Amino acid sequence: MIQKIPYALSKWALVIxxxxxxxxTPAQAxxxxxxxxxxxxxxxxxxxxGQDFKxxxxxxxxxxxxxxxxxLIKGGFIIGAEGGTGVLLVRDDVKGWxxxxxxxxxxxxxxxxxxxxxxxxxxxxxxPKGLEAIIxxxxxxxxxxxxxxxxxGIGVGTSSSTNLKADVYSFASSVGLFGGxxxxxxxxxxxxxxxxxxxxxxxxxxxxxxxxRFSNPEAKPLKDTIIKYSR
Length: 231
Prior knowledge:
Elements: H1 4-24, H2 32-48, H3 56-62, E1 65-73, E2 85-92, E3 96-97, E4 101-106, E5 111-112, E6 118-125, H4 128-135, E7 139-140, E8 147-149, E9 168-174, E10 177-178, E11 181-182, E12 187-190, H5 192-199, H6 205-209, H7 220-230
Parallel strand pairs: 8-9
Antiparallel strand pairs: 1-2, 1-6, 2-3, 2-4, 4-12, 5-11, 6-9, 7-12, 9-10
Helix pairs in contact: 2-7
């Protein structure tokens, strides 16, 4: 009996050790989509509260949609690359803000006029024309939709003074520097696989953003942040 005790103890030790390992393991790592959404929330919060983007809140309040890319990498973009993926949220006067749909910025090259390697960008879509182009996968910088760099380092004061001549405005932060990014020739394309993976079968951008047939409670922190600064 004395010889069996160490064996029994060692067996229980293995069981207890395995249980402790399970308890110490995180419940679930963030999915690719959820990680993008959280990074987008942090990017939006960083720019909308930044002293170098004092005009951004006024544009957000007037925007029909917000497109956020938490990480754009200098050089050629590969569709599906982590650095080129972001989210689009659309505002409806009655329904409020939609859940986010996933998009990629794709181009042969993107020139960073101020240098630097990585950029965080918030686009404010100001017109129905600009919004429709993105939802229908027909949005291309330098095409029929006009895009301009948002004012940097100044406040626009009252909402009536906000310049709304372009369809879309970009507010960008590049490795600690601000503005000066050229997106000529780049296209914004829906990431169908990420959308269906996050919401389910049939989750097209139109179904998510316009028809509002899909939602995910995990996107609420991002929506709440957008709502807070768009009132």
